[in-house]
Design brief:
Strand content: under 5%
Shape: globular
Distance between the termini: 78 Å
Length: 407
């Protein structure tokens, strides 16, 4: 039975970490299994439909993990997946708001606090509002799929947002003011945080903390070409054009192949790094980035995050790989000679609106503008006095001014 009794408290519910999302061979790259290790058929059907709809493997894994969290909750409250109502969705959200997910120890800083050097917040102990909203979106898509197949509950248990077209057709007095579209039920309020660039001195500090030519080359490429972390780590030797100082990346969303420029310094560090590699790793169309420890393996995203995590612990910062992409974008957007459409192409954005967010003045620019404003009145007074050619002390003695001169 569910926990829709008013006296129940979803925050105290113990949800066992049963089941798992395992890698699989075949068309569907991931499979969701229950506590006994058996495949959850309804989840596999949903993931198979995602593959047919051309979702990427990383997206399928993200959906599978969110669906596993939902099924664990249903197992804990003893409710079948096809007998779910909006009450279970409500209690699921309440549980996520109170639960503390298992996370590796990333830093000794207090969870949810703000790093004084970077101005970025550390992860909180509880699920982020965006994570709750993503989980609700996955659960809604899961039930929408099974409803289209004639299975599951009679209606989707996840409430949908009322769109403007539905509000127009609804019966409403013309004397009543029109309401703005609000968040759908149970969706959390997400604070919008603009992208932030690394100040030059902090980037130089991070660059100096790198302990190998490989890591210096990767940072130089990230901050000079704006590629996404996975795009840069997927390079092979056939993706390098030393003469034109270009790299060929496969865009994350569209899978389009694109050549983008990088700085000369990045290619210099790359040459230094590859000069230390064994000969068999620099022949043919082999991966560009390798682990430093033997046996040598292709450098993946988790390994590169570990490199940055060690540097953060040393510098007492909380930078991420995506901050380097933001730094590139904000530097380019601040250059009046770089058209916005050119920046859109370099970042691989499909829509120009995604690039326009980098035109918003960031914190360092706002502080510099404010300080310039504070200095401007005093500079204007000094300039006016110089134009008149009279000494302010003589004028005060002549006219008998006391304190500040009248304006």
């Amino acid at each position: 039975m569910g926990i829709d009794v008013p006296s129940s408290d979803p925050a105290r519910l113990v949800v066992v970490r049963a089941g798992a999302v395992d890698a699989a061979d075949g068309l569907v790259p991931w499979v969701l299994v229950d506590a006994a290790g058996d495949q959850v058929v309804v989840a596999s059907e949903f993931l198979r439909a995602m593959v047919a709809n051309d979702f990427r493997a990383s997206s399928i894994r993200s959906y599978a993990l969110a669906l596993l969290r939902w099924l664990r909750f249903l197992w804990a409250v003893d409710v079948r997946w096809d007998r779910v109502t909006a009450n279970e969705v409500r209690d699921f959200v309440l549980w996520m708001r109170a639960a503390e997910p298992a996370r590796p120890a990333m830093s000794r800083a207090r969870p949810g606090s703000t790093n004084l050097k970077t101005g970025k917040r550390y992860l909180d102990r509880r699920f982020a509002p965006a994570t709750i909203n993503h989980n609700l979106a996955v659960v809604s898509a899961f039930y929408a799929f099974h409803l289209s197949m004639g299975a599951g509950p009679l209606v989707n248990p996840v409430p949908e947002r009322v769109h403007a077209s539905q509000e127009v057709s609804a019966r409403r007095s013309p004397l009543q003011p029109r309401r703005h579209n609000r968040r759908a039920a149970y969706r959390q309020r997400v604070t919008k945080v603009g992208p932030r660039a690394m100040p030059d001195r902090l980037f130089d500090e991070l660059f100096e903390a790198m302990t190998s030519h490989r890591d210096r080359a990767i940072l130089a490429f990230y901050v000079s070409c704006g590629a996404r972390p996975s795009e840069l780590l997927g390079l092979t030797r056939g993706c390098l054009d030393y003469g034109g100082q270009l790299i060929r990346v496969t865009r994350k969303g569209s899978q389009a192949v694109q050549w983008i420029p990088a700085s000369p310094d990045a290619f210099v560090w790359l040459a230094l790094y590859q000069s230390d590699l064994p000969a068999e790793l620099v022949d043919g169309d082999t991966p560009v980035w390798w682990t430093l420890r033997r046996p040598l393996r292709r450098l993946d995203y988790d390994a590169m995050r570990a490199v940055l995590r060690r540097a953060n612990e040393k510098l007492q910062t909380n930078w991420s790989l995506h901050d380097l992409r933001h730094t590139f974008a904000i530097r380019m957007a601040s250059d009046p000679k770089v058209p916005l459409v050119s920046l859109q192409v370099l970042l691989g954005h499909v829509h120009l609106a995604s690039t326009q967010r980098y035109l918003v003045p960031h914190l360092e620019q706002v502080i510099a503008h404010a300080r310039e404003h504070y200095r401007r009145p005093r500079e204007a007074e000094a300039r006016d006095a110089a134009v008149l050619g009279y000494d302010s002390a003589d004028m005060a003695e002549l006219f008998g001014w006391r304190g500040e001169a009248p304006r």
